[in-house]
Each structure stands twice: as structure tokens, then as C-alpha cells.
Predict the 3D structure of the following.
Amino acid sequence: MTEPGSHDFAVRGQRTVYSGAILALRVDQVEMPGGRIAEREVVEHHGAVAVVALDDRGRMAMVRQYRHPVGRRLLELPAGLLDGGPAEDPLTAAQRELAEEVDLAADSWQVLTDLVLSPGFTDEALRVYLARSLHALSPAERRDEEADMAVEWVALDDAVARVLAGDIVNATAVAGILAASAAVTGGAALRGTSAAWTDQPTALQSRKADHP
């Protein structure tokens, strides 16, 4: 038995249960401390990006979007998947989502926070950016759920209060709002857009590259 914190959880076998458009489910046989082999189900997912876009009045651009798994509309940050291939740059994707969802561009970009959203069963990870010096773009064409999206401007302090009141529950929005509050009102230092993203998912992109 190894000392706690030193075991190598080696994968001794693997099978794919499902492979779809935005996720895959695989089962890994993982060696536990003491030598037992245990199965661990892993949902492979695209990485994603989200944007806290703050205007010069301290308001953030948010979207109210229908989410079918929970059956209601949630107040969220502009966000989207990194599903453009292995070479897709996260910052470029964030700029695209800001334009497509809220018709905005920004001159100033910083990394706000990185998230692993539910590491007990999925490799899904997300990078949240802080965008400032905003300017409007021509309205984008939207379809499906996004055609029903409403844009709401929310003061940062109000957004924090709504997180704590349970009104804003989307995990990405909660993390982004609280991180933005720490950065803007507390002066916390932020990283540049070229900062390394340790947990950016690659398994699903590699799967799709191998089986286009």
C-alpha cells in the first residue's frame, strides 16, 4: 500500500459505451491502492468558454436561456463549446460567443477563472474571461434555443446578491460573477489570455479526429 497522496491510478483497460455529437461515455478500469481494479465511468466533453462582459457602468451582459435538462430558463453568461477542432483558440472562441449571443466585442480581455465542472464523472472544463471596453456589433442571427434568448444587463453587485439568493444557479455564472467581484472590487490579480490552461479537455476532440 502506497502512502496517501502518492498512488498512481493507472488505467488497465477501457471501453466506449456511447459516442455522440457533444459527449462520449467511456468506462475505465483503474487500479486502486492495494491493487484492486475498479470501474470508473467518464463523460468526455468539449471544453468551453464563457465571458463576464462588463460595461463602463459596472453592468454585465447576461442571457436568459432555456435549458432542457432542468426544464426552465436560467440567467447565464455568454458561453459556448470549444467544438471547432483541436486547434481552436479559447480566446477566439470567447470573442465569437460574445458576438453571437449578445452582439458585443471587447478591446480588453483577461482570464478570470478556470473551472472543472464536475470532476467526479466528467472531464468537462471551462475558462471564464473578463471582457471590458465593450462596443456594440450588428445583431447576429440566432436559432434553436438561442433564438429565444433574452439579453439582460445586471449590475455586478446585484449579480452577486442574486447568486447568494439562489436566483442565479448556473455554475459557470456563479463562479464568473464571484471571481469578477473579487477582481473588480477586491483588486485580485488576473492572468493574461495566454495563460496555460492545465485541464483543457482533449479526449473528445482526439476521438473525433480519429473517427471523423
Observations:
- The beta strands are 11-19, 23-31, 37-45, 48-53, 59-67, 72-76, 79-81, 104-116, 125-136, 150-155.
- Helices lie at 90-102, 156-164, 171-184, 203-210.
